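Example record

The entry below shows one chain as it appears in the dataset: sequence first, then structure tokens.
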Amino acid sequence: MKQLLSIFAAVFALAFTACSGEPPKNVEPRAVVGKSLEGATFNDQFDKPHTIASDTTKVVMVFSKDKGHEVNEFFASKTPRFMAEHHVQFIADMSSAPSVIRSMFIIPGLKDFKHTVLLITDDATSAAYKPAGHEEQIMILTLERYKITAVDYVDDTQALSKALRASGS
């Protein structure tokens, strides 16, 4: 039994250290004014693919666990159709979490939400969108027919709500 526990502990430790590698180099940034998100596809918490729609006006992105919880609670407090009615997509980067933790704990928890949570689960996609120096903020991409027209950062859901109201989203 002790051997089995030692093996399990070693595998568990390996899972955590495997995810702490360097992010991919030479990845073209995607969250930049002027870039297009046409064809950008992400799986949701039910592993269903979603392509960013042409009528999407705001993409809300988070890159930390705390901001993910905060934004999920914000959208959970809205009507189930809020995001569709306001042409908003929500993307959470969980690439830094070990895949075992994602599949056993994080994703099952996300399935309780009525709103769609699009997920980034790989390092290359994360590197293309992750804003250096703004990982602990909420990133808001403003779109016009797929094209990014603004990239803004807010610190909390009060500011997120204000940003969504200000644009008519």
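Notes for this example: The chain has six helices and seven strands. The radius of gyration is 17 Å.
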